[in-house]
Amino acid sequence: MHELQVTERILDVVLKHASGHDVSKIVVIHLRIGELSDLEDEWLQRYFDYLSKGTLAENARLAIEKAPIVMQCESCASSLEVGKDELQEIVCADCGESRFRLVSGREYFVKNIEVV
Amino acid sequence: MDEVRLIEVKQDIHADNEKVAEELRRRLADQKTFLLNLMSSPGAGKTSTILSTIAQLEGTLRFGVLEADIDSTVDAEKVAAEGIPAIQLRTGGFCHLDAAMVTSGLDGLDLADFDVVIIENVGNLVCPAEFDTGAIKNVMILSVPEGDDKPLKYPLMFTVCDVLLVNKIDYLELSDFDMEAMRKRALRLNPEIRIFEISAKTGQGVEEWAAWLSREATSFIRG
Fold first, then answer.
1. B-contacting residues of A 38-57, CB under 8 Å?
2. What count of CB pairs under 8 Å joins A to B?
3. What is the pTM of this model?
4. For A12-62, how does the pLDDT look when each residue is reduced to its tens digit (9 = 90+)?
5. DSSP letter string over chain B?
C-alpha cells in the first residue's frame, strides 16, 4: 500500500549513489525485499517508472530478490525459513516447540546498481 | 555500447526512518515522556479505548494524544471534547505514520507537560506495522466483530506489537469469535505479546490493561 513512498526513497538512494561516479544511465537496480512486506513488485516498478522520468534512472529495471522470513525457536533458539502462509503451522524440527520470534523478513534493501 | 559497471549501494530503505525513531526515543527519555503507538483497523475502537484508558488513570498521569487521520479531525475533536490535549496530524492520504511525522506532531505539544502521549495511528493493520514511529511501546486493537482469523491475515502487525487489546468483548456472545484460537494464533507469531480482553464501551477489563500501561509508563519516566 505504501509503494509510492518506498519508491521515492529507492530513487533518492540510487541517484545519490550514482552521482560522482560518472554515470550516464542507471540500467538495473538490485533490491532485496522481505517476504513479510506488503509491497507488490509490479506496482513498485510502475511507480518507479513514473517517478524516475527525466532522471538518470529513467527506464531502469527493478530486479527484486525476496528475502525469506526467518523465525527463531523460543525454546532451543534454532532458526528456520518459513513461507508467509506457513506461519501458523511451524513446528521446530529440533525440539517440537511451536513458539517463534521473527528474526528477519521485513527489510527493504538496495543492494547495488548496474550503470553505464 | 558502453560497458555496464556495478556500484555497490548496500543501503536499507528503512534506515533513515529508524535513525529518526532512535533520536525521538532519546528525546523522550530525556523529557521523561512515554510514547505509545496505538494501531488497529478502522472502527476497532482506538478513540474510545484511548478515552476509557485515560479516564481509568485520571489524576495519576498527564495524557496527550496525537491523532493521525487521512483527512478529517473527527477523532481529535472527540478527544479534545473530553478536555484532553490533542494534536491532529493530517496524513493527506498516507497510509501510516513514520517517525518524522510523529516528531513534527510532537513539536505541537510541550512534552514537559505530559507523562504519556498516545499516538492514534492511521486505521490500517498493514502499513503502520512496517514503520517505526519512535514510540516506546506498540499496542494493537483487534475487535471481536473483525474475527479471530486476523493473526493469519496480518501477521506482521501481531509480530511488532507488545500488547494486543481484544476490544468489544461485550459482543462475544453474539459472535462466533473463538478467543482461544485467536490467542494461539497471536502467540505463535509473537510469544511475548501481552493480551488483554476489554470493552472500551462497558469498561470491562480496562482496569487491568490500564494498570499495565501505568506500570510501563511509570518505570520509563523514572528511568
1. 38
2. 99
3. 0.88
4. 999 999 998 999 999 999 999 999 887 888 999 999 999 999 999 999 999
5. -PPPEEEEEEEETTHHHHHHHHHHHHHHHHHT-EEEEEE--TTS-HHHHHHHHHHHTTTTS-EEEEEEESS--HHHHHHHHTT--EEEEE-TT-SS--HHHHHHHHTTS-GGG-SEEEEE--S-SSGGGGS--S-SEEEEEEEGGG-TTHHHH-HHHHHH-SEEEEE-GGGGGGS---HHHHHHHHHHH-TT-EEEE--TTT-TTHHHHHHHHHHHHHHHHH-
Q: Tell me whether residue B55 is exposed, middle or buried, using C-beta atoms within 10 angstroms of its C-beta: 0 to 12, 13 to 18, 19 or more.
A: middle
Cβ-count burial A77-96 (b if 16+ within 10 Å, e if not): eeebebeeeebeebebeeee
Mutate: best of B4, B7, B192, partner A, most A CBs <10 A: B7
% chain B with pLDDT above 70: 99
Among B residues 38-67, those touching chain A with beta carbons less than 8 Å apart: none
Question: Has domain B15-222 been given CATH number 3.40.50.300?
Answer: yes
Domain boundaries, given as residue ranges, for chain B? 15-222
Partners of A12 in the β-ladder: none
Please report residues of A whose CB lies closer than 8 A to that of B154.
none
Considering only CB atoms, which chain A residues are within 8 Å of B193?
none
The hierarchical CATH code for the domain A3-115 is 3.30.2320.80
* Order of strands across the sheet that contains A100-104: A79-82, A69-73, A100-104
- Copy the grid coordinates of residue A48: 518507479
Alpha carbon distance A107, A82 (integer Å): 15
Residues for chain B: how many in total? 223
Residues in a beta bridge with B142: B166
Task: Report the SS3 class of residue A1.
Answer: coil
CB atoms < 10 A from the CB of B72, how many?
Answer: 11
Q: ipTM, 2 decimals?
A: 0.84
